Amino acid sequence: MGSVTGLVDGELLLAPGFLAPPNTDYVGYHNYIDEMLPQESPYLYGLHPNAEIGFLTTTADNLFRTVFEMQPRDVGSSGGASITREDKECERMNYLSSEVKRSLKELELGIKGELTITSDMEDLENALFLDQVPPVWALRAYPSLLGLTSWFVDLLLRIRELETWSTDFVLPASVWLGGFFNPQSLLTAIMQSTARRNELPLDKMCLQCDVTKKAKRRIYENETAPRDGAYVHGLHMEGARWDVQTGIIMDSRLKELFPSMPVINIRAITQDKQDLRNMYECPVYKTRTRGPTYVWTFNLKTKDKSAKWTLAGVALLLQT
């Protein structure tokens, strides 16, 4: 009777670079695995090399955070016509900024001895020391993985974006989608506006996402908001990249973890006009934790089978 490997045309690989063992006994198989199995790497599991970079980056972040938390603390005594509901966004931002100012003022009075230090003040002080977003702020804010310093810079950019909306009361040439507390509100409003203008039922509408070759700067310098839909920017792709020249999803470049997307033109069409051929249904998330931060699904062009990008976990992120 022929061996199992004899039934296979050519060499049988159990993994990239790992040939099937010759016929032997139980101990022989164990020895073969111990001696011949290649060094563990993303390639061995059919993953892109960037997968290991992301894992090592996360591990390093956790290590540094743990070390930082163990450092001694010495606070010392040194002296010291819109298509979306921008009004709701402004309301939530005012709520957040008011809480930031209130809690910091309260902590200042506590440090001066004019107020009794409470557990909330201690939590705020610890978070400030560790460069973390205080829980009392995070509870009223948007999902974010940034440290406190970067988070505060991001907060100021969001406030500036909302000031533009509330001052001019017109749709910007390009909208920073990640700058919203609730980005779904903009996407839903695009469908509502088109459905109302064309007297169509909302449940028959869907979004068409056309990735342009334009950068945000060119949009602001040379164009206004489109008559149909909106230009959005500020998205990043994880697990792959967008090739501007060919207009399709491509494999990631080495060490390029979150490549930026060009400006995207989002408009509403009826579902019967939607063409899903050669498309990858790409989920959009607010942060790289994914899960509960899901926003929408954008259909992006691809020459490869969509299963390839699904297995690679390709997604669009509003914040990295």
Topology diagram in text:
Elements (H helix, E strand, L loop, with lengths): L12 E3 L2 E2 L6 H11 L13 H20 L16 H27 L6 H11 L5 H4 L9 H21 L6 E2 L6 H15 L7 E7 L4 H7 L7 E4 L2 E3 L2 E3 L4 E3 L13 E7 L8 E7 L8 E8 L4 H6 L3 E3 L3
Parallel strand pairs: 3-5, 10-12
Antiparallel strand pairs: 1-2, 4-9, 5-9, 6-12, 7-8, 10-11
Helix pairs in contact: 3-4, 3-6
Short description:
With 320 residues, the chain is α+β, with helices and mostly antiparallel strands. Helix content is 38%, strand content 16%. The radius of gyration is 26 Å and the shape is flat.
CATH topology of the largest domain: Hypothetical upf0131 protein ytfp
The count of helical stretches stands at 9
Report the helical percentage. Answer: 25-40%
CATH homologous superfamily heading of the largest domain: Dynein motor C sequence, barrel region
Give helix and strand order, one letter per element, not per position: EEHHHHHHEHEHEEEEEEEHE
Q: Which CATH architecture of the largest domain would you pick?
A: Roll
Spans of 5+ residues with little confidence (pLDDT < 50)? 1-9, 75-84
Write down the overall geometry: flat
The structural domain count equals: 3
Number of strands: 12
Instruction: Provide the spatial order of strands within the biggest beta sheet.
Output: 3-5-9-4
How much strand content do the residues show?
Answer: 15-25%
Structural class by helix and strand composition: alpha+beta
- Taking all residues together, what is the mean pLDDT? 86
The CATH class of the largest domain turns out to be Alpha Beta
- Rg is 26 Å
Largest sheet, in brief, is: 4 strands, mixed
Distance from first to last alpha carbon: 58 Å
